Structure formats: C-alpha cells, structure tokens
Amino acid sequence: MSAHTSVVPLSLYVHLPWCKAKCPYCDFNSHVAQEIPYERYVDALLMDLERELPRVWGRMVHSIFLGGGTPSLFPPEAIERLLSGIRARLRLFPGCEISLEANPGAVDAAAFAGYFAAGVNRLSLGVQSFQDGFLRVLGRIHDGRAALEAIDSLQQAGFRNWNLDLIFALPGQSLSQALADLQQALALDPPHLSLYQLTLEPGTPFARQAPGNIPELDASAEMEAVLREHLALRGLARYEISAHARQGCACWHNRNYWLYGDYLGIGAGAHGKLTIPGEGILRTRKPPRPESYLTDALGPREQLGELQWVQPAERPFEFFLNALRLVEGFHRELFEARTGISFVLVEGKLRRLVQEGFLERVGEVWRPTPRGLDWHNHLCRLFLPEAPEA
Asked: Residue 14 phi/psi, 5° resolution?
C-alpha cells in the first residue's frame, strides 16, 4: 500500500495491563494482581470498542497489537473470544497483522499453539537477556533456559513472524557480554529484533535508586555501534531507531505509528489517534487503572476516558517525533496528507537540520542520518509549538 494514500491507515491497539511482577526499569501502564478477571476484562474491551465504532465506521483495520503488561498471562480461550469479538465489529484487511506480546515464564507451549489457532500471526517475545545474572538485575521472572524454551515453543506452534527484544548497557555489562547476548539471539534466527538501551525512566524504581555500574555514555555508544553492525551483517537491517528486521518482516503496526497513521486504543490506559474527516485529529486516552477502567467500560457511560483535539500547531512535532524514527524517512506529500499542514511551514527547519548533518534529502524524501537517529529528541524539539523559527 502506498504511504501517500489520502486514506489514513487504521490499526487497533489493545492494552492488557497485568504482569506477574513489575520490572524496576518499566514505566509502562502495568499492574500486578493475584487474580486476573479475564472474562470481565474481555467484556469491557468489547464494550469499549463498541463506543469507538462510530468514529471509524466503514474503515478497514490493517493491524491489531495486543500489548501490555503481559498479554500472554491471558489464556488462549480469552484471546480467541477477544479476537472473535473484534472481527464481528471491525472489517479486517486480508492478511491483517495480529501481534501479541509474550514473556518467557508467563506462557507455555500449549498457549503458543492456542494463540496461533486463535488467529495471532505475530509474537513479540520480551527476552531482554539470555544471561541469568542480568535477568535477575532486571527483575525478570524467567531465566535464560526459559527464554530458549519459549522460542522453540513458538516456532513449534507455527509462528514464522516474531520479534525478540534485547536490552543492552545493563549494570556491569561489558561489550563482550552484550555481544554474547546478541550472538545467542542471532543463533535463533529471529526475523525481527528490537534492541534497546537500558534507560532510567522517571517514576521507576531504577530512577529512584539507580543500579550501580551502568556503562558510561561512551562505552554504551560503542556497545550499540558494535551490536548494530553485527545485526546488519546477519541480514537484520535497521529500519527504525531500535528495530531491525529481515526483508519483509518489519512490524506493520509500529510502522503505522511512525508514519503518523491512525489507531484505535482500547483497554486500561490505551491511547488512540484518529483522523476525523472535516474535524481534525483526535487523541483518546482510557482510564489507566484496571479497576476504574472495568467500572467505567462495563457501566453506562457514553464516553470512556479523555478526548483531546490535536491543534494544527502541535501536529508538526507529533509527526516528526514519529517519522524521524524511521531510517527510510518520509515524503513531503505524506506530511501534508497526515497533518493537513503545508510543507512550506516546516521546510526551513528541515533544511537547517540538513545543514547540521542530522537529515539528508534525496529527491522529495527527507530522512535522518545515523547522527540524526542518535539525536532524535534534539531534532524533534525544533518542531515544538513554542520553538523559534529558523
């Protein structure tokens, strides 16, 4: 499908907020519970979706992403009922990408087969490391052996499209240890690998009390360069700041975010972004606490959560915050089609970034240089509404 179509592609994000334990580096909307109300939550999700339907009536959905939390804590029967309910309410594009996040230690072989039978066709496995010592530091509930067993199980279940998450620059981690993790991952031949540097996110236990011996900036940068070089040599091309994939295996759902596409968001704390013809761009946010979400979604409320219109002055920043994550960059026509704003209003700032070595222009395509990918936040700040004109 052309990225320059006048119809903005639509995805569906479903948030399943529970985990077995809260990792000290995680700032996602996730919650630990002794018992998970699977059936009630699926009921709430489908009622949430019912409320959203008038905003997307007649549009086709190109991807579904079940994120969390730890969606693999939900049994396959609950996922099957959820997906059946979604299919009954939305038109899915043929071959619709349906992803589910899973964690080793929160899923077994039978569950992988059940998810595949339910219609999930892509898995994202949060391995983070294969080394038990680093997994303990990260607060993970699995060990390296469980990670290997999970990957074998998902392949046995029939999954050919899957992602593996790794984190580097861990406390006390050397370059050789980071490379050993990556080599272990590459030996499993993943079609997609997401590589993240450990960051101390505000509000997390790691931010309140940072673990000792985190690699210095120069050491982390060297580590990243070596790891990404190895990924490229093994045929996993970098197509986004953190994402590498074999040809044809890029995550469609995430690319839709980065190309400033539309997405419905259902579930506790889920965000959505919808282009409403003749009105503008609407942001939605559902109640973040699972208990509040269940009460509101299953109750008589007509509107669930918060709504906010994205003002024209805010759209360039939102667009570039996403599009400048992609190695491929963007076309000026895409900017105008997705934001409704003349490209002339941002072209001067983009030219300045080209002169500074953060972007390059090839024909009508503007894309970040390797330096631009490293300084992504710096580039995007230039487009904040209060930023001075170039």
From this structure: -120, 120
Whether 69 has a pLDDT exceeding 80, the answer reads yes
Q: Is the dihedral of CA 300, 289, 198, 246 positive or negative?
A: negative
Task: Name the strand (E) or helix (H) holding 84.
Answer: helix 76-89
For residue 268, how far is the Cα from the chain centroid?
Answer: 16
Sorted by where each starts, the structural domains of the chain and their CATH numbers stand as: 10-256 (3.20.20.70), 311-390 (1.10.10.920)
Q: Measured on CA atoms in the order 20, 25, 30, 34, is the torsion positive or negative?
A: positive
What was the pLDDT predicted at 107? 87
280: left (phi over 0), alpha (psi -120 to 50) or beta: left
For the sheet with 359-362, list strands across it. Answer: 330-331, 365-368, 359-362
* Tokens representing residue 169 in the block: 């620059």
Whether the pLDDT of residue 390 is over 80: the answer is: no
User: What is the rounded distance in angstroms from the CA atom of residue 350 to the CA atom of residue 344?
Assistant: 10
193 contacts 244 by C-beta, under 8 angstroms: yes
Whole-structure pTM value: 0.94
Per-residue pLDDT reduced to its tens digit, 299-312: 999 999 999 999 99
